[in-house]
Each structure stands twice: as structure tokens, then as C-alpha cells.
Design goal:
Blueprint: E1 2-6, H1 13-27, E2 31-36, E3 50-54, H2 68-83, E4 87-91, H3 93-108, E5 116-120, H4 123-126, H5 132-144, E6 147-150, H6 153-162, E7 170-172, E8 200-206, H7 214-225, E9 230-236, H8 241-250, E10 257-261, H9 267-271, E11 275-278, H10 287-294, E12 299-302, H11 307-310, E13 317-320, H12 325-336, H13 339-354, H14 358-373
Length: 380
């Protein structure tokens, strides 16, 4: 099948999932066309059965904000027309779904039928999408999609709750991991660069937005480090970083906390983690937590959104209410204070992550693609 994939090329979960999905489809012989304004961060320049098509936006003085949606729709038409795309899969509703619909209508005028699938990832529904400015357009684009998927049951229900005009059936196809990417027996040799043999390593990965509550990560660590020798590794960047750095100084913890910034492949860091902390206000799925579990790291998380669907209480980790730093620290100490218990949690985390192995999720997408495409729709 000849598949177009529209995604954001950044470090966010939607772009990562879209890229890994495209790469997996390409390995199975499908021809994949990534359409975005930059090369996705997890995509190399040369990969078999994969092409990248850049969306360029003219910087015309008349426009205060460049019309990316129109440029994207035009590029979709161009790629579909000349690359004979069978199906378009757009990740993140804003503005990809509306651009896909616009492109579909333009192609229909030429006698070309291009079905498109919209995958909802989270903030396109729960944060940005709730803005009244976008509500009507998002509802319309979702309803006009040939199929819609959500990465968790929680996100599916949120979509129906926040967008009462959405009538399209939403199918839950969860995010996934590639377990082989986290089988890193040599990663342990890097541990000495971050901690001594007697210290535990706690890790957090995010885009440092308020919703991630990175300050809670530091507060949990501050409690734990006073009971168990520990180090904290923070991966990522974002608007809250300067506040977190200030917090570290106020707690006199800077010498035990390391900021690594944005890392394209955090697998090695996750492989040396003893515990992963994700105290988010909400997570529609929690891909970072799943990746941590795949690397064998138990997860301390909140119980909001899709997190309870993947992080099983007292199995792969522990769940707490949002903002309950004391309980999160207590749970962290419970796991880290006993080596046998920690080993069991690590093993359970890996087993839980394997339930979301790409080999189990990919066929669900392929079945959906086949259903949507059906009989050949392209007119000759």
C-alpha cells in the first residue's frame, strides 16, 4: 500500500508514534510518504520505502501568521497526485485533519478519491482542542474523516465529552514500543557517568510544560534522596526549565540533578534508570512511561487519563493522585528500598510493556487501512 503520513516532526509523542509506525510499515513493504515542515526527529534521511516531502510556507508580509494549513493541504494534493497515494493517515487533529479534508475535496474535483484516517493523540483534544476557536472545525474534521482512532480509551471518552458534535465512531489503537530498541545490555557501562554504584537513578522525560508538573518530580526526588542515595536525570526542555533550575538551587540539590536537554533516542538513559517519574496533571496515554517500562524501569505516575491503562498499580509501578508528592515519594522509597522488590518491579515493567509491542499493534492499523481503502478507489 502507498501511504501518506502527516505528523509534527518534533520530540512530542504524536510525532514519535507516527514516525515509528511509518518505519514499521515500510519494513513490511508498504511505501511511506512523510509530509511535514521538517524531517521527523526519529527519521534518518535515507530509509528503504520511505520518502519525505517538505511543506514550505511563503513568508509574505500580508500574513501575520503564515498559512501553514493551506500549504499543507496543497502539499498533500501534490503528493497524492504524483505519488499515487492510496491512503492518508494524519496524526494530531490540529490542523492536520482539516488540511486533509480540504485536500480530499480538491482531489475529488480531479476524480481522485483519497480516504484519510485521523489519529487523536491527546492535547489536540484535551488542551488545545478545548479552545472554542477550534471546536467547530475539529468536530467537523473528525466527523469527515474516513476513520478515527484514539491512543487510549480515556482519550476516546474525553473526545466525546469535550466535542458533543462528534458522531464518528472512534476506535482505540494504543501507542506502542519496539521492545528490541530497549534491549541494551551494554547500557550499564554508561551508568558510572551519572551515579555511583551505591546510588539509585531516577529519570523524568518531558517537554517541561506546566501540565507535566516537573516541579513535583524534583520535590519527590528531594524527599527520596534524603533517605536513599540517589541521582535525578531530567531529559527534555521547555518553558518550565528555568523555574526547575531555580527550584534545584533553592533545594541545594543541583549537584545531584543533571539536565540533559532534548535527546532524540533516550533509550540508553532509560536503560540505566531505577525509577521513572511522571506526575503529569493528565496524560492521554503516557508514551514516555511505556518506553521506560520497556527499558525495565518501574513507573511512579499519577492516575489520570490513560496512565492507569498502561501502568498497573503494584505491578509495573505505582499510581497516585495529582500533586500528592508525599505519596509518590513514599511509593518511590517502597520500590527502591528493597533490591528484590525493585528487581521484581523491573521484570513486571518489561512484561507489561511487551503487551504494547509494535508487532501486536501494527496489524490493527493494517486492518484499519484495508477496511478504509476497500476496493481500489482511484479513478484511472
Amino acid at each position: 500500500m502507498n501511504i501518506g503520513i502527516v505528523c509534527y516532526p518534533t520530540f512530542g509523542g504524536s510525532g514519535v508514534v507516527a514516525t515509528e509506525l511509518g518505519k514499521a510499515l515500510a519494513k513490511k513493504g508498504h511505501r511511506i510518504h512523510f509530509i511535514s515542515y521538517a524531517l521527523p526527529v526519529r527519521l534518518s534521511a535515507f530509509e528503504e520505502n520511505i520518502a519525505y516531502h517538505e511543506v514550505t510556507v511563503s513568508d509574505y508580509p500580508l500574513f501575520e501568521y503564515p498559512p501553514y494549513e493551506l500549504a499543507l493541504a496543497n502539499k498533500i494534493v501534490d503528493v497524492a497526485r504524483y505519488e499515487k497515494i492510496d491512503l492518508l493517515h494524519v496524526h494530531y487533529a490540529i490542523p492536520h485533519a482539516s488540511a486533509a479534508y480540504f485536500a480530499k475535496q480538491m482531489l475529488a474535483a480531479e476524480g481522485i478519491k483519497l480516504p484519510f484516517i485521523t489519529t487523536l493523540h491527546g492535547t489536540d483534544i484535551t488542551i488545545v482542542g478545548k479552545d472554542p476557536t477550534f471546536e467547530t472545525a475539529i468536530s467537523f474534521s473528525i466527523n469527515e474523516s474516513d476513520a478515527v482512532t484514539a491512543v487510549s480509551e480515556s482519550l476516546k471518552q474525553d473526545t466525546y465529552y469535550f466535542f458533543r458534535k462528534v458522531t464518528r465512531e472512534i476506535e482505540v489503537i494504543p501507542n506502542f514500543v519496539c521492545p528490541e530498541h530497549y534491549n541494551l545490555p551494554e547500557a550499564g557501562k554508561h551508568r558510572k557517568f551519572y551515579a555511583s554504584p551505591k546510588e539509585k537513578i531516577m529519570v523524568h522525560i518531558s517537554n517541561f510544560r506546566k501540565v507535566k508538573r516537573v516541579d513535583d518530580v524534583v520535590r519527590v526526588f528531594d524527599i527520596v534522596r534524603k533517605k536513599i542515595p540517589s541521582r535525578l536525570i531530567l531529559v527534555g526542555d521547555g518553558p518550565e526549565k528555568s523555574n526547575i533550575e531555580k527550584q534545584c538551587r533553592e533545594l541545594n540539590a543541583c549537584n545531584q540533578i543533571q539536565f540533559l536537554g532534548k535527546i532524540t533516542e533516550p533509550n540508553t538513559i532509560l536503560a540505566i534508570a531505577d525509577l521513572f517519574i511522571l506526575p503529569s496533571e493528565t496524560e492521554s496515554f503516557g508514551l514516555a512511561a511505556l518506553e521506560a517500562m520497556a527499558a525495565g524501569s518501574p513507573v511512579i505516575s499519577t492516575n489520570k487519563g490513560g496512565l492507569p491503562e498502561i501502568n498497573i498499580q503494584e505491578v509495573s509501578g505505582m499510581l497516585s493522585n495529582v500533586g500528592d508528592v508525599e505519596e509518590m515519594a513514599k511509593n518511590a522509597l517502597y520500590i527502591l528500598s528493597d533490591e528484590k522488590r525493585l528487581t521484581k518491579f523491573k521484570s513486571n515493567a518489561r512484561k507489561q510493556a511487551k503487551k504494547y509491542a509494535i508487532g501486536k499493534i501494527l496489524p490493527q492499523y493494517e486492518q484499519l487501512y484495508a477496511k478504509v481503502v476497500g476496493e481500489p478507489k482511484r479513478k484511472v
